[in-house]
Amino acid sequence: MNxxxxxxxxxxxxxxxxxxIRAASLARGTSSAPLVSxxxxxxxxxxxxxxxxxxxGARTACVVAAAFSxxxxxxxxxxxVVGSFWCPLSLCAEMCDEPAALTDSLRWQRRVLAAICLMLxxxxxxxxxxxxxxxxxxxxxxRRRVMRAHxxxxxxxxxxxxxxxxxxxxxxxxxxxxxxxxxxxVGFGLHVPGALYLLTSAxxxxxxxxxxxxxxxxxxxxxxxxLLTATDARLxxxxxxxxLVLHVYAMNRLVFALLTRFNLLASARYTLSxxxxxxxxxPAALGWAxxxxxxxxxxxxxxxxxxxxxxxxxxxxAPLALPPASRATQDVYSASGFSxxxxxxRHFVTxxxxxxxxxxxxxxxSLSPRExxxxxxxxxxxxxDGTISKAELGELLVSWGLPRSDAAACLAEVDGDRSGxxxxxxxxxxxxxxxxFACAVVSSNASVEARLARLLLSGGGAxxxxxxxxxxxxx
Length: 475
Description:
Elements: H1 3-9, H2 14-27, E1 35-38, E2 41-44, E3 49-50, H3 56-77, H4 104-130, H5 141-170, H6 173-198, E4 204-205, H7 206-228, H8 235-246, H9 248-261, H10 269-286, H11 289-308, H12 324-329, E5 333-334, E6 343-344, E7 348-349, H13 359-363, H14 369-380, E8 388-389, H15 390-399, H16 406-414, E9 421-422, H17 424-430, H18 432-458
Antiparallel strand pairs: 1-2, 2-3, 4-7, 5-6, 8-9
Helix pairs in contact: 3-7, 3-11, 4-5, 4-8, 4-9, 5-6, 6-7, 7-8, 7-10, 7-11, 8-10, 9-10, 10-11, 14-18, 15-16
């Protein structure tokens, strides 16, 4: 084996790569702190990791992408002519115009798609209320509360669809408008704040997911405002627009389930599910250009991030000259083609994160619950001292896209003996969702591989051995 192949298959330790990056930075006369990535975590100065959303560039990009999304939907609210840069949606006279002529074919297509969304609601609601959610939503009390409120608001809005049509055709526009007011109260009061809070910890390629979620949330708020100000003649049309935007997530779950069923595109499964869900629902709801604007929001987000990503490397335009061993790891790349040169990680967060212990795959079926929990506990106890410290807990949360600061809140809830760390018994009882999730991931991957093996062997082929990310039902 030649030296290049050896470097690629056995990358140098993190400290070696960080030292190489730091030396290259110093050679160019800069003192900026290098940033290296492993999966979803970011490391600065070879010390501790940070979630993507904690970067200044990410926060700046969120503000810019949100402003772009609001601008787009403000322009849509005013039609072709923009009366003022911003005004309350209830005062936009252009929103109260009579609806454009819609063919019966298009109207029925929207109704059929809305009916499909309603059927998907039964599965989505049952899954979220009866099945355990990802542990990142339950390890901290504040996130548990937000998640429950978000599930409640989503469920109420799903029930609002049948209620709207029953009111419209049974009691007339006045009764249907009362349902719309109730839906708007739930949407603006619970659903929008919850969506904005949860999008900061998105899975997948976060530099696509976060702006995609931002744009979808802006479109959702726009469709709610449009529904509140709709005329009687436009009421059903605007309700269908709101209903279809609301069900971007249902479309995502459908696509995700299909990709998981056939074990397709495992490494990009969640990201593709969201993009395909947006591509299905948004054009049907707000016109074909709505998805194009969503893509623009993603581009704007990334341009803003690259322009403000000074903590990821140098602000000089020439790319850093990294040694071959560092380039072979593909953990960093130059962004000088778009903006300031920067060392940027592959901002990708998997549902599994750091929690899945490899030993589970070999012995998961024969182990007791405590033995399974012990394997996961030992995986997280990187220091080997028999406890999970706040720093080690922070590494797990960051690998799930959560801010490191959540580790202190989680530790305060779980650390019953106030030792400053989590012992095994505390982990087994108080953090059961964490190790149970790790076991569920292994079981899910094993069942998928067994099913594919049966299919391939029945056709005379050989079964591949592949474990993809994002394939767990809890993702």
